[in-house]
Amino acid sequence: MPVSLNMNMAMPSWFDIIGLSPDSQEDEAGIKQAAENVKALIDQEVKNGIPSHRIILGGFSQGGALSLYTALTTQQKLAGVVALSCWLPLRASFPQVLIGVNKEIAVLQCHGDCDPLVPLMFGSLTVEKLKSMINPANVTFRTYSGMMHSSCIEEMMDVKQFIDKHLPPVE
Q: What is the pTM for the complete model shown?
C-alpha cells in the first residue's frame, strides 16, 4: 500500500505511517482495520481447533505495533505478545488500566539501543504505558547494545525462551 512517510510509494505495510515522532498523526482507521484483519486470523485458528490462549501474536516494527494494539483490543484471551522494535499505536486512546481478557497478558518487548527508525525512546514510552495498563510483572523489556532497526541472536534467543515459557508442549 502507499505509505505517506515513504513519499506515498507502495511498500509492504499494515497501515499508513504518517510520521515517526511520538506526537505524529496516526492512521486510526487503517490501524483499526489491520487489527480486525489479525482478529479474523485468530478467529480462523480457533475454528481450526487452536484455543486462543495458545496463540502468541508477534511482529517487528509495524507488525509489532499491530500485535500490541490487537492484543489489547481483542476479546480473545491470548498467550502473549512479542513486540520487536516497535511502539503502541493510538496509545492515547487506551484507558489508564486495561479492563478485559488480556489484562494479565505476557509481553516481551525488545528494542535495539541504536535504532534510527523507531528510536529506543518509543520502546521506553511503550513499556511504561503497558506497565500502567496491564500487570507490570508480565511485561518484560529487553534492550540490545549496538542493535539498529534489526534483530540479533540474543534477541531471537529471548523470543524462543518467551515462547517456550508461555506455550509449553501440550500433553
A: 0.93
